[in-house]
User: What shape does this take?
Amino acid sequence: MKIIKPSLFIISLLLLFSFNVSAQNSNPIRFSTSDIKNKTQKRTYVQSFNLNKDAFLSMEFTLNKPLITYLKELAPNLSQEELLKKGSFQFSFFVDNQLIHTENLHKGAGTNKAKTTQLTYKIPLVYPERLDFWGWFMWLKFMKMSGGRDVLDEGKHELTVKVSTYINDTAFKTGKVLAEGKIDINVEELPYDASLIPVQKITPMKDLKISKSNYKKERIEDLNKKIAQGRFEHINGIVILKKGEVLIEEYFNNSNRESLHDPRSVGKTIASTITGIAIDDQLIKNEKVTIDNFYNLKEYKNYTPKKDKVTIESLLTMSSGFIGDDNDFSNPGNEEFMYPTENWVKFALDLPMSNRKVGEEYHYFTAGVVVLGDILHKTVPNGLVDYADKNLFSPLGITSYKWQYTPQKVGNTAGGIRLRAIDFAKYGQLYKNQGVWNGRQIISKDWVAKSLSKQIKQPYSDDSFYGYLFWNKTYTMKDKKYETSFCTGNGGNKIFVFKDIPFVVVITASGYNLPYMHSDIDKMMQTYILPAIVND
Assistant: This one.
């Protein structure tokens, strides 16, 4: 019998068919614009979605096997309990074939029962009100933290979502794509009030001159439009000084020059300023002084001789070695555990010490700054608030402000002292002036230099450092680097003091506890503010 050999063409077709079948092995994701909470409404599926117009968007897919089975395939040596702790779904969001956001679901997203038995998933993404569902938060992170709302600009786009699995054990592993779907996104321009776009006129004042320097007003008007549209949310004020003169002063969302603004942890930095002034006045020898000079530490819980080595400097650089970390919500020294207590200083000093050497490793520790404020209150004449008024605020001409207080009626250096945005700008300019205001040396040049220097490395990025309750970072624009020291607070509040260009930039905002506010401020600086004020 004659054997007929298949041609190379047929073999290629078979291989291509086999590859396509494998590539299309995932189950489909269907999208719906029905209200997922309305159980009486018939669920309809769509091919397109109108962003900024349609109120609802959800996705639905069905697995062939429960999630736990796919996790077991990734890590066959792990028990079911370990799999559920170390793995879950991975969602990938692509816009026009560009990966924008990857979400490795936290182990707390969904129940263990669902992960071991459930096949069909209906996941809300867009909803007109906040939902206590991980899908709603996932869409929020995709849009507002990973840049989805910027790539989904006005016009037509294609959104692709892929669902796979991951395990984070000795190494991070991802599984095959289990479900995949595409939907067309039509993006309509967000409405805005056109009267909010023009640059606002600066009203003359007695203690700050208005700058006559030019800047690119169209870039600020572009920014104003984005604020008016809600792209940049909860912005209350923008004040920019150039060479100590007011270049730009803009207010939004019912704020004005006289508004007192709560800047949260921006207020921490004022504790550093008062510490420097107290050292200049020889009320405190220097920042190397240990806290056992102010407290009998043996009277507090978890005493160890290591506590006697905690210095004022280590409180200023967030490196005291106490077990306290505000970025870890389970940490016993987290500030959220401090606020309900009757004595915040006792809360801090009762904490155990870590294995870290004092002064060597950064951990953001609000309670340590409360201790610093209490030390100042004990040390300076008539207490912290009176001393700050006479030696800082009055010399700067700052008369409209409001302190918050600790349970012991001490000025709260954890943050929250309310000032006008224009006065925050004066405070920043004081550092830009190397501590001089109207010819008077309010803070020593040495203290300013120490405060703004890179005292300790932060873990957030390669260019992230910390001074004396000042942060430090570098912006890059057109291959040029612009280093800045800055105060920062929850909600998007900032005072930037630039090193090599003659600017102080203040942004006040009230997006408290919104995780994307700080990245939004970076976007404002990088895309609008620096291009507007820096000469090319």
Q: What stands out?
A: The longest strand covers residues 155-168. The first helix runs from residue 8 to 23. Residues 301 and 350 are 4 Å apart (CA to CA).
